[in-house]
Amino acid sequence: MATIRDVAKHAGVAISTVSRVLNDSGYVSEETREKIEYAMKELNYVPNELARNMFRKKSGIIAMIISDIKHTYFAALASYMEKELQARGYKLMLCSTDDKLEIEKEYFNFFRTNIIDGVISAVCGLDEQVYIEFVEKGKPIIMLDHALEGIPVVISDNIQFGEIAAEVFIKNNCKNVLQITAENHEVLALTEMRFDVLREILEDEGIKTTLRRVDWNNFGYDEYYQLATELLQADGHPDGIMTAEVGATAFLNAAIKLGVKVPEEFAIVAMDGTFASKMSIISMTTIVQDMSEIARRSVEAIMQMLDGRKPETLATYIPVTLREGETA
User: Fold this and answer.
1) pLDDT tens digits, one per residue of 40-49
2) Contact 32, 17 (CB under 8 A)
3) Helix, strand, coil abundance in the chain, percent, nearest 5
């Protein structure tokens, strides 16, 4: 593989001259530039993009840090983020913490090098000052689920989320609604608001609600199905549920297997709206997060920060929509 030294020798110029052409960092005559470009073509020379960016004190890489890559929402959102970044000449580095604080800490220590230009973070388990100091040292952060002083957050409108869900359960005449979500290690998580809003509205209507937390890293389809089977066979079982799509599908399948009529006896509302909510035999009633818009606004904000500008707003709330189905 040809090196920059080989190019310089072939073109009959100094290595520093080739470097100026590659980095567009100084004057080089048109004749010399043509010689260097011809030499690179002759030698099939591929510039080391990372090394060139490091010279410029930038890497062209944005890290996205999430809790669990297996979760369909994060997997889908990462795909949209990657497309938005690629359109702007950046690459995505996807980092999954497995919902462990020590892994998140290791990542942020790693990010302090020049390996990345900024971070889009869906986790926030460390001390708040860690993120604030990170930004103060010139590394922009966009949060996806947490409100921190001076740091932009882009998130779905969780108040609207809870209101839409409540309306669905009220219309279905539910009396006992179960909400299932991840264990909460992060007191600043804004998604908690959707569950609070849903509970408050339903309780005002005299409807019982229960919030059950599970470890998403160790709670897949089989565990959801087992839980659904146990709950739906018990006396006084829930007549409504809101949970992530994998869980919603497991509850639907368990209800069908047990002969529980959906939605007459058991209403199901799935969260997020990825491909997973479209894989059941019965169309799933789903509250859809606009992942494309979340990605677009997140990348726009971090690009503004990289240009030395302040984002237009510190808090961007993206509307959610109800995709009607046959489960509620």
Assistant:
1) 888 888 776 5
2) yes
3) 45, 20, 35
Among 165, 163, 162, residue whose Cα is nearest residue 174: 165
> How far apart are alpha carbons 176 and 136 in whole angstroms?
48
Instruction: Please report the beta strands in 245-318, taking only residues with DSSP state E, as ranges in sequence order.
Output: 267-272, 286-289, 315-318
Architecture, CATH, for domain 158-289? 3-Layer(aba) Sandwich (3.40)
Give the residue extent of every domain in the chain.
4-47, 61-155+292-317, 158-289
Strand partners, 118: 62
Local structure of 218: helix, strand or coil: helix
State which H helix or E strand residue 86 sits in.
helix 72-86
Fold classification of 4-47 (topology level): 434 Repressor (Amino-terminal Domain) (1.10.260)
Which DSSP category does 147 fall into?
-
Predicted TM-score (pTM) above 0.85: no
Check: CATH 1.20.140.160 for 61-155+292-317?
A: no
- Classify residue 83 by burial, with Cβ atoms within 10 Å: 0-12, 13-18, 19+: middle
Give the pLDDT confidence of 96-145 residue by residue, as tens digits.
Answer: 998 888 999 999 988 887 789 999 999 998 888 999 888 888 899 999 99
Question: CA separation (Å) from 81 to 65, 76, 98, 304?
Answer: 12, 9, 20, 16
Is the predicted pLDDT of residue 52 greater than 60, yes or no?
Answer: no
Please check whether the two domains, 4-47 and 158-289, share a CATH topology: no
